[in-house]
Specification:
CATH class of one domain: Alpha Beta
Shape: globular
Order of helices and strands: HHHEHHEHHEHEHEHEEEHHHEEHEEH
Number of strands: 12
CATH architecture of one domain: 3-Layer(aba) Sandwich
CATH superfamily of one domain: Type I PLP-dependent aspartate aminotransferase-like (Major domain)
Amino acid sequence: MEEDCAETGNIQRLLEEIGAGLDQYLKFEHLDALHPGYQWREYLDITLPHKGVGIEQVTQELVGQIIPNGSAVTKPGFSSFITTGATSVATLAATAANIAAPQRYGLNAFNFLEELSLQWLASMCRIPHMQGIYSSGGSVANLLALGAARQFAFEKIGHDVAANGIDRQVCVYASEESHHTIQRSAGVLGMGRRAIRTIACDSQGRIRVDELQKAITKDMKSGVLPMAIVANAGTTNTGAIDPLQAIGEIAKENAIWFHVDGAYGLPGILDERISHLYDGLALADSVIVDPHKWLGASVGVAATFVRDRQLLYRAFTQEPADYLEGAMEQEGSSPSVIEHSQDNFGIPYYDFGVELSAPCRGVVVWALIREIGVEGMIRRIRRHRDMASHIAKVAKEHPNLELLNDPTLSICCFRYVAPNIVNLNLFNQRLHRRLIRENENLPSTTQINGKLALRPCFIGARTNQLHADALLEAVLRIGRELANEIV
């Protein structure tokens, strides 16, 4: 019988069918979604259905047509961008939250884990004395941090910028290797993208501290309000870590907000071989890290940490609404005994960021850490860094490979070379496209000092040394084939 609401008695069986389809997908034996002869688009591209087919048919279509033609991002050999497929425990936790706690408020177990997991995450990543909030990704996480920085800078001069708007020119200092979301945040926050002062980097992609100090001195003399300094704890391009200690000291000397973008690279602090590179993190006023990158969460989980979460409140509060606050017990009101999970919203995350409606993300981070612990995370970080180091070692020694940048984290930039190749950039671009179309080893590319590099970034929980070896083998094989085609 056709229903106009979700069925309630068969979710276990249907989830088992979906689970079986996902298990098959995770064998990675399927072809790419755009393989020759693919027909899923013709099957799915129908007009708006006026009559439903029911949950059983929808489940069959998910398993038969949609899951097998999903994204290449989840493949263990995918090392293109800094995103990956969620671990199984992250998927389970997110599914549980979707059903049992669809909103991030109330005094329930899921919302309890929102704050607990933030504390765990801060402790694991050695973020000192800060409180946090989850958001959808590094874009919003950086936006929130810079929103707090904006509030801090203007409150120092007696102006509530969130309430009354920007009334003077401000600037944010960020290196030329900073993520482009910093510029976008400046635009969204009303400062303008041109408020970003781009600071030059050294040959390793790290911000030049001398150039930073020059820029700050110049702006202060011209009456521009310095709002924040952004440092990278692992750039997207090469994984470079800025000199955090030196930058933090400059920030404190000039009373400027110090923000550390560790969306990708902050978990690298777990590897004691490079933990010293994060010295100075304790000087930060805000830090971000994305569990959906190196930690294996499902996409849509980032964390912003600040020293004073009330700054976030003053920057992003939506102001009281009768239908919200009036529906809950208020502090100091009578009766004061909390007897129901809906008697109180709990921690007002909705006033610390830009989302009123938001999923419970903390349960995903809780599940990731609970499953393998800090020790398991350390092993993963070390494994991925060792893979990048291995490729770098081979690239230094092999006559047909060239290392373009020594890896700091889990990114290695290298290329194929041979005496008969005139245009190495074009050659390696062709090599890269052939790699991608083989659908097994899928790095991205970047530019290092004008040279096009193959750029694997290893972060997948299912990715191991075998995949690094397979990538090297494929690059050398394809490189030879293409070189032999040159007359």
